[in-house]
C-alpha cells in the first residue's frame, strides 16, 4: 500500500536536519545505598558520546551500564563528576535526549499506532508531518498490518520494533537505547540490527547504544566503549572503521571486524575473570596465569 | 501461540495479521463462551438443585424440627408467582417493583457518589505522595469502622429516612473504591511514566495517559467490591431506617410473621444484586478493550 514511502522518505530525510550534540561524562561516581550498605556502581568513569556518531557501550551484565543511562537521562544524579550535553550539565530529564530504557515497554492500553504517535501528540505536534512519519516507520518496521493491535497481541520482536518506531519518530538530538534487542532470537535480532542501522544512517544524529552482545556492538558501532566490571569505568575505546552501510555478511567476513572482535573478547574476558575471582588480586593473578598456560 | 508468533516474526517484511482475530469479540462474550465450555454451568445447576431439594425435603417431607417455622419451597414459590398473593407481595403486585425500584435508586445514588468521589480521591492518593501523607492516615482510621457502627450517627446527622440509608450505603463503597484505585496507581510500573516523560509528556499528561488507564483494572476490581458492599450496607440501613426497599421488606415481614415474604425478599436481593455486579463488569469490559484482547490472547 505504501511502497512509495519505502523508496524515499520525504518526512524523514528533508525534515531531519542534522543536529550536533555531544555528551561528555567526566570523572563520574555513583553509589546506591548509604553507610555500610553503600554499593559503588560507577567509579571515576569518563567517556564521550561524539556528535553524529553511533557510540556503542559494551560491558559485562550487571557492571553498571543501565545506571550510567539513568544518569545521562537525568533521572538520577551523579555523586560527583559531571555529565554535560553540548557543554551544559545534565540535571533533569529533557526532550533533547530520548531514552529507550531497558525495561521500557509500549503502553498496553494503546494500539501500535497510538503508541508510535504518542510522542508527537504529547508535545502537541499531531500534524500531517507526524502522521506521515508514523506511516513511514510502521512500514519500515513491518508493522503496517498491526497498527490497530494492542501490544499484548504482538510477538516480542514486533513489540521491540514498535518501541523503536515510537522512539525514532521524535527526531531526538540524542537517542539512547539500553539493550533494545534483548531477548530476541538471532534471526529477528539480525533483522533489527539492519533496521536500526538503516534508520540511523538516514539522519546520523547522535546515538548511544548499550549492549552485552559483541557481534551487535561491532555491526552497529562507529565507536565502541568497552566498560570494566562493577564498579564500572571506561576500559578502552575502539573506532570501528568498517564502512557504512554494512551488511551482516560483509561484517562476518571482514578481517578487520574479526580482529576487533578478538580484541574486544580479550578485554571482556579479563573483566569476566575479575568478577569470577571476586576482586581478589591473588585469585585474579592465578586465573590469569592459568589461562595463559592453557593457551 | 508461540509458534505462530515466531513465524510472523521472521517474515518481517509483510507479515499478515495473526489468525487469532478477536477484535470484534468482547471479553464478555469470551467469558460466556468459555464458561459454557467448562463444567461450571452444569455444576451450578446441580448446586441449585441440591439446595432447593434439600429445602423442599427438610421442610415439607421430613419436617425436621429446626425447620418447623421455615416456609416451604412450594409455599414461597406459589406466593411469589401468585396473581393474588396471600401476604400481598408477588411478581404481579406493583408494590414488589416499588421495593426493588427504591432499593435500586438508593444503590444507584450511593454507588455513583462513591465512584465519583472515590476514584478521583484514589487517583490523587496514589499519585501524589504529599497528598497521601495528609489524607491517608485519616482514611485508614475511618475505614475499619463497620457500617453498622455508623447507623446511630447517620440517623442523628441526616434528616428524614432517605438520606441516612444512602449515606450508609455510600460509606463502605467509597472506602473500597478509593483504596483499590490507590492500589491501582501504585501497581503501575514506573517505566511507563518514565517512557511518557521521555517522549515529552508533562506531569498532567502522564497522569491522564498513564496513571488513569494503568489503574483502570484495579479501579474496576474496586467497583466490583463496591457494588457488593453497597447492597450489604443498604440492607443494613433499610432494616433500621427508611420505608420501602428490600431490606425493609425482609425486616417488616419478620416482625409481622409473614415468613414467605422474607424468603421472597432474599431471593430478589440475590438476583438484583447479581445483575448490578454483572453490569459493572460489562462496563469494565467495554472501557478496557485493550485488556479484553490481552486476556483473550493469553488464554487461547
Ligand atoms: N536503584 C538501585 N538501587 C540499588 N542498587 C542498584 C540500583 N540500580 C542498580 N543497582 C545495582 O547496580 C549494579 C549495576 O546495575 P545496572 O546498572 O543495571 O547494570 P547493567 O545495566 O550493566 O547490567 C547492579 O549490581 C545492581 O544491583
Ligand atoms: Mg542494564
Shape of chain B: globular
Q: Which structural class do the helices and strands of chain A define? A: alpha/beta
Shape of chain A: globular
What structural class do the secondary elements of chain B suggest? mainly alpha
For CATH, the homologous superfamily of the largest domain in chain B is named as: MetI-like
Uncertain spans of chain A = 1-16
Mean pLDDT of chain A: 84
CATH topology heading of the largest domain in chain B = MetI-like fold
Gyration radius of chain B (Cα, Å) is 25 Å
Number of β-strand runs of chain B: 0
Q: How many strands, which pairing sense, and closed or not: the largest β-sheet of chain A?
A: 6 strands, mixed
Name given to the CATH architecture of the largest domain in chain B: Orthogonal Bundle
Q: What is the rounded distance between the termini of chain A?
A: 57 Å
Total separate domains of chain B: 2
H/E topology pattern of chain B: HHHHHHHHHHHHH
What is the strand tally of chain A?
Answer: 10
Strand order of the largest sheet of chain A: 6-7-8-3-9-10
Major sheet attributes of chain B:
none
Annotated CATH homologous superfamily of chain A:
P-loop containing nucleotide triphosphate hydrolases
Instruction: Estimate percent helicity of chain A.
Output: 40-55%
Amino acid at each position: 500500500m505504501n511502497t512509495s514511502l519505502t523508496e524515499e522518505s520525504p518526512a524523514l530525510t528533508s525534515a531531519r536536519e542534522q543536529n550536533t550534540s555531544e555528551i561528555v561524562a567526566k570523572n563520574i561516581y555513583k553509589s546506591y545505598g548509604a553507610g555500610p550498605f553503600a554499593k559503588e556502581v560507577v567509579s571515576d568513569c569518563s567517556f564521550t558520546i561524539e556528535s553524529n556518531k553511533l557510540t556503542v557501550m559494551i560491558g559485562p551484565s550487571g557492571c553498571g551500564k543501565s545506571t550510567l543511562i539513568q544518569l545521562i537521562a537525568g533521572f538520577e544524579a551523579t555523586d560527583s563528576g559531571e555529565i554535560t550535553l553540548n557543554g551544559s550539565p545534565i540535571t533533569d530529564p529533557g526532550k533533547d535526549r530520548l531514552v529507550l530504557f531497558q525495561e521500557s515497554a509500549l503502553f498496553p492500553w494503546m494500539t501500535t499506532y497510538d503508541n508510535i504517535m504518542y510522542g508527537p501528540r504529547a508535545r502537541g505536534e499531531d500534524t500531517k508531518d507526524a502522521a506521515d512519519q508514523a506511516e513511514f516507520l510502521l512500514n519500515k518496521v513491518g508493522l503496517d498490518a498491526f497498527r490497530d493491535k494492542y501490544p499484548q497481541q504482538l510477538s516480542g520482536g514486533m513489540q521491540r520494533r514498535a518501541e523503536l518506531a515510537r522512539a525514532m519518530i521524535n527526531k531526538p538530538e540524542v537517542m539512547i537505547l539500553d539493550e533494545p534487542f534483548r531477548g530476541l532470537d538471532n534471526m529477528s535480532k539480525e533483522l533489527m540490527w539492519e533496521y536500526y542501522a538503516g534508520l540511523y544512517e538516514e539522519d546520523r544524529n547522535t546515538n548511544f547504544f548499550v549492549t552485552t552482545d559483541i557481534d551487535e556492538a561491532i555491526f552497529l558501532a562507529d565507536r565502541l566503549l568497552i566498560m570494566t566490571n562493577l564498579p564500572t569505568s571506561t576500559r578502552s575505546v575502539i573506532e570501528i572503521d568498517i564502512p557504512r552501510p554494512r551488511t551482516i555478511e560483509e561484517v562476518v567476513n571482514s578481517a578487520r571486524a574479526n580482529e576487533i572482535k578478538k580484541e574486544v573478547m580479550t578485554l571482556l574476558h579479563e573483566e569476566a575473570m575479575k568478577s569470577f575471582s571476586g576482586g581478589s588480586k591473588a585469585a585474579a593473578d592465578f586465573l590469569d596465569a592459568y589461562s595463559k598456560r592453557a593457551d | 501461540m508461540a509458534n505462530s508468533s515466531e513465524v510472523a516474526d521472521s517474515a518481517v517484511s509483510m507479515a499478515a495479521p495473526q489468525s487469532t482475530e478477536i477484535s470484534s469479540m468482547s471479553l464478555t462474550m469470551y467469558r460466556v463462551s468459555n464458561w459454557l465450555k467448562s463444567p461450571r454451568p452444569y455444576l451450578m445447576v446441580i448446586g441449585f438443585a441440591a439446595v432447593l431439594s434439600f429445602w423442599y425435603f427438610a421442610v415439607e417431607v421430613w419436617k425436621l424440627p429446626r425447620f418447623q417455622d421455615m416456609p416451604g419451597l412450594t409455599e414461597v414459590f406459589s406466593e411469589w408467582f401468585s396473581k393474588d398473593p396471600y401476604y400481598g407481595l408477588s411478581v404481579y403486585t406493583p408494590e414488589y417493583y416499588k421495593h426493588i425500584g427504591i432499593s435500586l435508586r438508593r444503590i444507584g445514588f450511593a454507588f455513583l457518589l462513591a465512584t465519583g468521589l472515590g476514584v478521583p480521591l484514589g487517583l490523587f492518593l496514589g499519585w501524589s505522595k504529599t497528598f497521601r501523607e495528609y489524607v491517608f492516615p485519616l482514611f485508614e482510621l475511618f475505614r475499619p469502622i463497620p457500617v453498622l457502627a455508623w447507623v446511630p450517627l447517620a440517623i442523628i446527622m441526616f434528616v428524614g429516612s432517605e438520606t441516612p440509608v444512602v449515606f450508609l450505603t455510600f460509606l463502605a463503597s467509597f472506602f473500597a473504591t478509593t483504596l483499590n484505585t490507590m492500589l491501582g496507581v501504585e501497581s503501575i510500573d514506573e517505566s511507563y511514566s518514565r517512557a511518557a516523560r521521555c517522549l515529552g509528556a508533562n506531569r498532567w499528561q502522564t497522569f491522564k495517559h498513564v496513571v488513569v488507564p494503568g489503574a483502570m483494572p484495579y479501579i474496576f476490581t474496586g467497583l466490583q467490591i463496591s457494588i457488593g458492599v453497597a447492597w450489604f450496607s443498604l440492607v443494613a440501613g433499610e432494616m433500621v431506617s427508611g420505608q420501602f426497599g428490600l431490606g425493609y421488606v425482609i425486616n417488616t415481614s419478620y416482625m409481622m410473621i409473614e415468613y414467605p415474604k422474607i424468603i421472597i425478599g432474599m431471593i430478589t436481593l440475590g438476583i438484583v444484586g447479581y445483575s448490578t455486579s454483572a453490569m459493572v463488569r460489562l462496563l469494565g469490559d467495554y472501557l478496557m478493550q485493550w485488556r479484553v484482547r490481552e486476556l483473550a490472547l493469553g488464554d487461547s
